[in-house]
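Lab notebook: predicted structure, single chain.

Context: the supervisor wants predicted structures on file for every construct in the current expression panel, including those that have not yet been purified. This is the next one on the list. No modifications to the sequence; it matches the entry in the shared construct table.
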Amino acid sequence: MSFISHLYFGELGEWCAERMPGTGEVAQRLAMETRGRPAVRPAGRVGRRHWAQVDRAFAVRTATLVQAAPPYSALYGLVRIGVAGRDWAHRQAGRYPTHIRLGAAERQRALDLRPTFTGWTDIAAEHGVNAYVAADGSAQYARFSYSAAEPVLDDLFDRIRAYFATHAPFGQVGAEKGLARLCWLLAMFAYVFRNDPIDQPFFGLFRERVPTVEELHGAADEAVVTELVELVRCLHTSGGLEEMRRLAGHPPPGRPWGIAWPMFGAHWDDNDILVGGPDGATLIDVTSVLKVNDARRSRRWIWRLVGSAWLDTADAYRIRNVAVYLARYGVLTAWPLADLVEELLGGEDPERARREFLDLVARLRDTAPAASP
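Prediction complete. Output recorded below exactly as produced.
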């Protein structure tokens, strides 16, 4: 089981429920923040797949507002299903602005290197891309075998980087309809990092032959694209983007706001962004759910944010605040980490609680069976 699985369905969640009695009140206040606010909704009737695609694609868009980093999960996903190889993924990661200044040796394993505020984290041992390939470099979970797809994907990713560099300045609304299509594509690739491509009709494009860049670009779901544009508009008009700018310390134009998809132990969440300010950084969970009054769901958001901050034992990300951004309502709720922990624990010693939490995480990791890719 992963950190998230333990937190949502296992011992870590049980520990949080027992040791954080103040969670219910915090979750209730979070839900109340949306009262009386209009929500961004689909234009028509949609299925579960639509909601999930919007959530993933909007998370990609918010990450690009913060940092020009490789789309880690998308690259992992393409390797995992055999559409592209490990070396190709490393080369692609090394072409992103965050990684392009690495030395030649580091760029050869760029996908396993993640930037922090204090340097670099090498995740090869914990969760490197090698976990998804055999000794000969072939995918261990192969669903496709089109090595000829790499030139097409090279072209696609070159175009994606160029489009974002031109049309998506840090912290600014850009050419959102075009950006939405690209975010949808990256979200689809990221989906197969943890899921089977057979669940998504999009991957039927790869079954008979290698699709063209134009076919991949044209496959974007128009309803999802339209909704993504509306969510970005809501981020801007609600003041949510300006509040993120404040939390980031009002960085000047052209400077990254923080870190996209920070890494905690062997885990990263595609909905996480980190914005850095003069008094530390704020870890933000970006969610596009509509029903925010589900206590079970909201308490998991809170526990995951606190748990992730606690896992940063080296203080590499300088997390001093945590926040939830409710994208359909344009509501950003932030807490100083120390204050939130104190309220959740109901007066218990925060340092003692953190040690217990980390000890439990270590025990669960040590007793876990070897994961199969």
